[in-house]
């Protein structure tokens, strides 16, 4: 079985990880872990596909999670892509990989929040799509996909030709050992640019995007407030709490 996991690299500062520049989108970590788990019961190749800047440390972290192959779709022509342009480029890369059985991705990226990439990929590739994926299981050689929403839990038996959007999120900093850091430059990865993917550059990046970012505004942080310790059994403290709540 050949599984492609679409990985989004996000600014590490969004996850309060200032020691590095980029981090793996938390939802994509869970998607990757679900793919790697299948190695225990099925002969599986896990391929990580990243559209973005090549980052050696990111490649090392993906390798640590269990990726067998790492591919960066990286070109300045891909920059500034919205969902439409992103799924076009990713679909070209997946077609180049060839004979892909499953595609996993995180439900959404924490820096975009659209959650449309999985469905968009399925549409472009002619694959079926399942969202709200909680985890995968293997039962007597059958691959089962467990999905959930706020009310129900659903179990599907799935075959090849599927895109799965994993809804779980894991926010944790991936640490590399001293030995892994020493060997970081030896981690193998591939880089595919626009010419190698044979893309129509009019459909990539900003040129291929139907939405444009016209303005970015930084929200002001709320002023820090002094903490007040209140005793729930003290009547005067309860009066003070009521006054605070009324002011809000």
UniProtKB/TrEMBL annotation:
<dbReference type="Pfam" id="PF01012">
    <property type="entry name" value="ETF"/>
</dbReference>
<dbReference type="GO" id="GO:0009055">
    <property type="term" value="F:electron transfer activity"/>
</dbReference>
<dbReference type="InterPro" id="IPR014730">
    <property type="entry name" value="ETF_a/b_N"/>
</dbReference>
<dbReference type="InterPro" id="IPR012255">
    <property type="entry name" value="ETF_b"/>
</dbReference>
<dbReference type="InterPro" id="IPR014729">
    <property type="entry name" value="Rossmann-like_a/b/a_fold"/>
</dbReference>
<protein>
    <recommendedName>
        <fullName>Electron transfer flavoprotein small subunit</fullName>
    </recommendedName>
</protein>
<feature type="domain" description="Electron transfer flavoprotein alpha/beta-subunit N-terminal">
    <location>
        <begin position="13"/>
        <end position="201"/>
    </location>
</feature>
